[in-house]
């Protein structure tokens, strides 16, 4: 018998995809409902490999969905709820048309809500999955928490966003999970680390709400995204609080519940309350201790037993441990012109305490007159009244200190000083073959000494010292001016002595060589025999040979890649070497000039005295 | 009947006396009989079985051997279930007489209608403030009920569920304790949670998985950037802008500039010329002056077919042949020299091929990179290309106090979703305002004629 003819597009890519219209027909939903359920369930349109085939021969570009995705949606119990809602909406419409406004209002009041907690569980089977996808969620929630009630955004949504974001910030404070901060023109970038997952989000600067033009952003869609994200963030908060032994939900002051929105809180007082809430630590579960610090990393012999990597990981862990107690025991006073929210959040994250003007904002914990305050954060050119017991610094000091993971020297950040640039901490560290100027290197690791220490090392130090001096000059109102002066004096003395030494060196032959000769003389003695030691140079040569052999064994498939990699390395190395040389020459030149100038001055002084 | 014997003359003057002395017993008896008949049914029509009973028991002596099974208490109660309850028997009509009045007026129960007295007491109570209190109580109760309802609704926002622990989201599935006993396996399967179904959710698109939700910021967007990083950012912006300008210029070139532009005045002139073609032109004395007389004169002289002579023909042929010969000679010479050039040629060809190959690879790589970075085409409208954020140097004040809003964060989020492929880019369809056709109601129409008429009638001076 003749087999039945196979219809076109009944298998393969043609059967794999479905247009949006077909999906609507299959699910028996309106476009609005379909959009909503797709966002809630995390089902997105697809781009096919071959569009012509996927669209069953139709031209143009249509929005396509996976047939499997749509079949998956068919099982969702919420679809039934959406269909019920449709009936309910019809009732409301009917009541309005009949002018039965009482009835209509009652319907609107009792509008049924959809519970979507199972979708959160379904989309993120494990907690780590949820944490991994928190970037977008947090950014949108922080953004919506600044919105007033809009036409397309449900009123309780922004309230919920406010509550959840503050709760999340509390969790970050309690876990001391903040790692990086970056202040951009867009807003504040924060990066935290929970359970090994890094989460980055943006908090907008605090401006008043800017109305959005209609054709830019579809508010309805964004509100649906936020609807899901609030649900997710709520459960994440719950889990975080319980893992930190905190009571959930934490008791926060008013302004976070939609029930009390009637007593019309203005924007300013709302913001100050939000910040005040951040200054209070949430209640702990009774009878629980502090969450134990993570124990030191145990070393397990793994497959790629790279001691260097292990060492790096250990160092990183130690650094983070230090970072967590960066501001511990330090008291900060925040002046009123400084944006308090990010600063309070950051300072509290690293164990500091902070307060502000209690006459202007609620929630201050100590007064400005408190003598134990270590730092006062100021963002104005000068202050009338200054205390000797504290440093007056600009807010950037806090951000930069967090990013470098140490308390930076304050002299560049003093009141009225021109600030050094605020660098991004998100620059990838993979690019290691880059020229780093010695100043930056010094910033990154404090025990860095310039390589050519015998001759040019002192020069570079000197140069950097001079830089500091230049920056010190404008802050004449320095509170510890005396100390600074003494420091400078000492440095100058040191320089003088070193220069003297160098001058002596020029006169005599190298004393170091003499020393070496002496040692050699000492060692020239008949001694008892020692066991044969491998010659280090010999060994080096052998190693090199072995390396070359291994290079030969690189597969033909990868040989070109390997070659290009090596060539790139060489090129970069050369570039770095060139830049370093340039810098060295430049430094030397400057030093010579300076020396000549000094000599001239000395001569002049001598002449003056002689005359 | 006995009383009829006694005959005595008595007055039966008025109704009372007549009633006293008239014997109506027989009539009453008859009526009573009739009523009894009505109540119990006619005696004659009744079957014998209803009137008579067969006496089987004898007179008063019960036999002992009759075995009656004792009914259990439960059965007794069961049997009584069907009976009409005794307590309500009194409500049933005991007579068989039908209600002669088929439609009765409803009588309101006592107390339902305010009486004069109740009105008085109500007024007194109102003055006392009892009603006010009742109203307030009711209002409070209503409010409490509403709040309770609202709170029940907000349970959703409590998040008191360890979603990734032991707790399972409730109500979406049948509790496992019930599964063993009551619920059939089909129903269990039907109500199983989506995550436990056999049909798994297909994996997400690669763009969604690999592209970061929050991009790593360019170091130049810092509120206080270093000079170099800021310049890099500006360079990026400039390149982006240049690309856009180039595109626009191209579009302009291939569309607008393809067509000749004519000013309005020129167009008018052209039209005039075209329309007046063939019509007698207006007399222009200046034009007529140039013509000497009415003689016709062609602009180009007439073509003459001048034949070449033999010599010229020969010369031309020779010239052509010579040219051809030289060409051939040159080619032959080149052939000989090319033999010596062979290796050079080969190398140049190879080099060219290599270069072209490299170019091809480069182009393919570039195309692939562009495809990797491009937003997926999900709808007919392409998503806008992500533009680097422009931070104008004038905007940078270097302190936190004077940071100005530079980027619309919501829009950036929206575009990020589009770029990752979570949203199909779409054009926002604005609702068109319906054009209303306006017209006058016929009676209210005021035409010019009406105005004239009005003026005429009222003798208004214009």
UniProtKB/TrEMBL annotation, chain A:
Entry keywords, A to Z: Nucleus, Ribosome biogenesis, rRNA processing
Basic residues bias spans: 515-524
Organism expressing this protein natively: Bombyx mori
Region (Disordered): 438-542, 588-611
Subcellular location: Nucleus, Nucleolus; Nucleus, Nucleoplasm
GO biological process, one term: maturation of 5.8S rRNA from tricistronic rRNA transcript (SSU-rRNA, 5.8S rRNA, LSU-rRNA)
Record HAMAP family: Pescadillo (MF_03028)
UniProt KW Nucleus keyword: yes
Name of the protein in question: Pescadillo homolog
Membrane is among the record's keywords: no
Function: Required for maturation of ribosomal RNAs and formation of the large ribosomal subunit.
PROSITE patterns reported for this sequence: BRCT (PS50172)
Domain BRCT: residue ranges: 322-415
Family as reported in the entry's similarity comment: Belongs to the pescadillo family.
Biased composition (Acidic residues): 459-480, 492-510
Biased composition annotated in UniProt, kind: Basic and acidic residues: 531-542
From TrEMBL, chain B:
Comp. bias (Basic and acidic residues): 266-275, 284-296
GO aspect biological process, one term: ribosomal large subunit assembly
Region (Disordered): 266-322, 353-387
TM stretches of this protein: none
A Gene Ontology molecular function term of the record: 5S rRNA binding
Annotated keywords: Nucleus, Ribosome biogenesis
One term under GO cellular component: nucleolus
Compartments where found: Nucleus, Nucleolus; Nucleus, Nucleoplasm
Stated role: May play a role in ribosome biogenesis.
Assigned protein family: Belongs to the NOP53 family.
PANTHER family: GLIOMA SUPPRESSOR CANDIDATE REGION GENE 2, RIBOSOME BIOGENESIS PROTEIN NOP53
The name this protein goes by in its record: Ribosome biogenesis protein NOP53
Organism: Bombyx mori (Silk moth)
